[in-house]
Amino acid sequence: MSKEGLREKAKVYINGRLIGFHDKPLQLTKDIIGSRRISQIDSQINVAYDEKTNEVYINSDSGRVQRPVIVVENGKSKLTEEIVKKLQKQELNWNDLVEKGIIEYLDAEEEENAYVAIDDESITAEHTHLEINPIGIESIITSMIPYLEHNMAGKALHGAKMFKQAAGISYVNPKYRMDTEGYLLYYPQKALVKSKTMDLLKMDVRPQSQNFVVAIMPFYGWNAFDAVVLNRGAVERGLGRMAYYRTYDAVQKRYPGGQKDKFEIPTEETVGYLGAEYYKSLGEDGLAEVEAKVDGKTAVIGKTSPPRFLEEVSEFGVVKEKRREASETVRKQKSGHVDEVIITEDLDGSILAKIKVRSDMIPEVGDKFSSRHGQKGVVGAVIPEEDMPFTQDGIKPDLMLNPHSIPSRMTVGHLLEMLAGKASSMQGEQIDGTPFNNVPLSELKKMLKEHGLREDGKEIFYDGITGERIEGEIFTGVVAYRRLYHMVAHKMQARSRGPVQILTRQPTEGKEKEGGLRFGEMEAETLVGHGSSMLLHEKMIEDSDKVTELVCEKCGIIAVNDKIRNRKYCQVCGSTKVYPVEMSYGFKLMLDELKALGMYPILHLRDKV
What we know:
The chain is of the alpha+beta class. It folds into five domains: 3-132, Hypothetical Protein Ta0175, Chain: A, domain 2, CATH 3.90.1070; 157-241 and 365-483, Beta Barrel (Dna-directed Rna Polymerase Ii 140kd Polypeptide, Chain: B, Domain 6); 243-361, CATH 2.40.50.150; 493-542, DCoH-like; 546-596, RNA polymerase alpha subunit dimerisation domain (DCoH-like). The protein has 14 helices and 34 strands. The strands form ten sheets. Strands 12-26-13-24-23-30 form a six-stranded mixed β-barrel.
């Protein structure tokens, strides 16, 4: 066959491999789909034809995400009322529907060519499939967002991302688990506005949110931008309070020669002895006592190791072993109480000690909260209860959200959840906010009216500080808010002086290593833009790796300062005409690396001292 003839034919790929050509790709695609619908081939096989590239893709490999949809032919759903009745009588089951081609599984590639209707009413002659339920469009996590169809797609993704960061009941056996890090919300509540997915996942049994009374209003600038204001009275009653768990472990290693580590309270003779205050929480066995208070200066596992080298024999022929300090201490800013102590064995049969430390995390300025709609914010202020604004009925909000958070983000679902939460708290029952299947706004308004509240969810508020009535009406409702595990106590960092890296002599990086805060290229550019050259010099040289090196006037390279012979000279030409030059050690290191590459960097001196 000629090359031109091959070009006209469509390429056929099976699981990404080219297996041949076909002159009727559309007919081939229809035949494969038809065979699948009458169970001649497996229901898991998918086929798609791409008109732009003139290629047919057939997929039967594992790992593809598929979703079930109802087949539509000639503008009519194949799932008729008759079949639904048979399903209800249990004369048919799911597998029968798949075998008969009433329901089929589509993967991402085949879905590209599908035109799926949301419900029976919207089916036209062009439609190829029908959703079993529109919630099938969403993922498991996204479908837990109530009134989701009223939000922007970006905010839905944002809200879904934060489900994974929420503190709640992460596991049902926290007492026996020894995770490196863990979070436990003290008083989690069922969400007043739920979705069907939450029922399937039993989210009422393992909740991860609390129902906050939220007022959308500014408060003296404390909730500017994304900040939120919390009610101190609510915080003191347990709002958003949680425990943070951190596990520390140590092993009694065995060494060649019969020596081994030992769990004990180190004595003053121990090499590297930290001081008595470090060991105040340890019991006789060298392990911290349960419920003992520990902080950044406390050892939780007292441990000593044998010396690295054998000691010399004394005049009496006795070897006095000087043991080394090897205790496990609590990390900085992670103080708390010892929650659990476990002694077990590792795979080699060595004794392994694990100690879990519990820290109480009370909401404070800088901690992060979020609703299910991606309305996240950090606490800008925790206001005394007596200063909080209040309604005619004396209700004070737990949280105040800035009004500017709503219009630009278009999270109408958040507003509907506030109304639904308010109606739910008056009605005394959970309200279904499942995407595409929820209690409509008209119903919510009716509920609020029945309980003597305004249909629009607005309330008249009085300023708690001045006692005056606030102009305008404030939209108020109940929303399930989540406390996220990003806490300011774990992020705070400061450094004045501290360790430096050996190679570059610049400050170490990372909070645990007492590192400096990185002043990068973009930060430097801002100072250049402001013309702050002295500040730039201070940040990038003085505070970092400033060094004074001698430079040869003749050769222009770094000279030597021989302190033993008290002589300053150039290694290349032997000249003693060398002058001190201030530079960053990183620059000096670069000069050395250039020399190692066979390049000769020359420094030209101008002002000689």
